[in-house]
């Protein structure tokens, strides 16, 4: 009788999860897709805000702020890199102290403050559109105080993202019970739909915000993302009664970081499960290092890809020009198309063939994207060589303000190929790093994937600075001459081809010997 009476309770409540009132989380009343869609909506709004700033940032730096192309690209890569590295700190705070929900709330408030100050700084710059700025960069550069306010605000956004980005996605994945076979499969699907929805927000930002920045004003273009971030925070709080929260540790339980640290330093004195968790973390290091060679080429689409487009013919109909940063929206559109195909067609077919629950292994998925990324740089180098030849043929080498008679559509293949690489590598990295770390450290797991992109951006910034100095600074034969008709971005792209190819072969060797951590009893 006792066994029969207890069985419904085991089926009704989720182990190790509580609801908003810190009572056991009911399986039917909390979590799963009804909660996950709230959290996905929050991510869409946050990505709209972030990319509303990031996607056209290089044109603001070279326009109203008057920086050279190389310095602006280095600044964008540095900010992007730090934005992706700081989530490691945010994830640590969440996993060790505050919990994911509280960390997201605090980080969102910092995020909103940063965006508000960023909008204020652009309002104070005495220029409203990039076209009005072309003739007056040298004579009307903003004051040092305004520049300081702008960059302070920009890095405040990075600090806000540090708590928001890893915790929101981990919190979303927490809504699926890893011990339930059906919910475990739903969680794998969650990562695909998460990325699809996120890209929808990115695409909307690029379509709407970039156009407003180029055609109306930078202040309004930076203000709209601030409004969306406020909406993100409100939406997140509204869904609080639907969420499942990871049960808090009791005071007598060991901090997971302490537990893992002890297992690394004195494995003989620790439990076998603790040693296994510590070993799993160590095995991630070689994989993390090799994926950096994917992240360096990935960093180029918001900098040099955009600057290439500025020099090319962008008229689609008489009187209407495409903002060069708007081509990034094609990446989002392709991802929105490809993710459902991957999730609903490719995964079931490959699952039938390989007998793997995920269709193809996570490392194979990541490796496929790395190959596509390397091929993207090959195409980008060839297109840039063609652009330089066209500029030379028409005598435009020393006329950087004159449009090169070559359609911006030539850039479409490199954008679309990079998007296809994202579908494989980025989503694969999210699921891989989330599932291969101990359960208590899953915010850290997602922060590790973000830190790959962050370090890749910083390495890209370092490469640009070193190569720029070695090849003549901002003039002469520099690869990054502000006059792109005298620059050699094609050489830089070929260098990235070599780096990414070497990285892939190292990844191939490491992945063949990688032993997956036993997750969820599988």
TrEMBL record:
<dbReference type="GO" id="GO:0042937">
    <property type="term" value="F:tripeptide transmembrane transporter activity"/>
</dbReference>
<feature type="transmembrane region" description="Helical">
    <location>
        <begin position="193"/>
        <end position="212"/>
    </location>
</feature>
<dbReference type="InterPro" id="IPR036259">
    <property type="entry name" value="MFS_trans_sf"/>
</dbReference>
<feature type="transmembrane region" description="Helical">
    <location>
        <begin position="281"/>
        <end position="302"/>
    </location>
</feature>
<feature type="transmembrane region" description="Helical">
    <location>
        <begin position="133"/>
        <end position="157"/>
    </location>
</feature>
<dbReference type="GO" id="GO:0055085">
    <property type="term" value="P:transmembrane transport"/>
</dbReference>
<feature type="transmembrane region" description="Helical">
    <location>
        <begin position="491"/>
        <end position="510"/>
    </location>
</feature>
<dbReference type="InterPro" id="IPR044739">
    <property type="entry name" value="NRT1/PTR"/>
</dbReference>
<keyword id="KW-0812">Transmembrane</keyword>
<feature type="transmembrane region" description="Helical">
    <location>
        <begin position="322"/>
        <end position="342"/>
    </location>
</feature>
<dbReference type="GO" id="GO:0016020">
    <property type="term" value="C:membrane"/>
</dbReference>
<dbReference type="GO" id="GO:0071916">
    <property type="term" value="F:dipeptide transmembrane transporter activity"/>
</dbReference>
<keyword id="KW-0472">Membrane</keyword>
<dbReference type="GO" id="GO:0022857">
    <property type="term" value="F:transmembrane transporter activity"/>
</dbReference>
<feature type="transmembrane region" description="Helical">
    <location>
        <begin position="415"/>
        <end position="434"/>
    </location>
</feature>
<feature type="transmembrane region" description="Helical">
    <location>
        <begin position="218"/>
        <end position="239"/>
    </location>
</feature>
<comment type="similarity">
    <text>Belongs to the major facilitator superfamily. Proton-dependent oligopeptide transporter (POT/PTR) (TC 2.A.17) family.</text>
</comment>
<dbReference type="InterPro" id="IPR018456">
    <property type="entry name" value="PTR2_symporter_CS"/>
</dbReference>
<dbReference type="Pfam" id="PF00854">
    <property type="entry name" value="PTR2"/>
</dbReference>
<feature type="transmembrane region" description="Helical">
    <location>
        <begin position="363"/>
        <end position="383"/>
    </location>
</feature>
<dbReference type="InterPro" id="IPR000109">
    <property type="entry name" value="POT_fam"/>
</dbReference>
<protein>
    <recommendedName>
        <fullName>Major facilitator superfamily (MFS) profile domain-containing protein</fullName>
    </recommendedName>
</protein>
<keyword id="KW-1133">Transmembrane helix</keyword>
<feature type="transmembrane region" description="Helical">
    <location>
        <begin position="446"/>
        <end position="471"/>
    </location>
</feature>
<keyword id="KW-0597">Phosphoprotein</keyword>
<feature type="transmembrane region" description="Helical">
    <location>
        <begin position="78"/>
        <end position="98"/>
    </location>
</feature>
<feature type="transmembrane region" description="Helical">
    <location>
        <begin position="105"/>
        <end position="127"/>
    </location>
</feature>
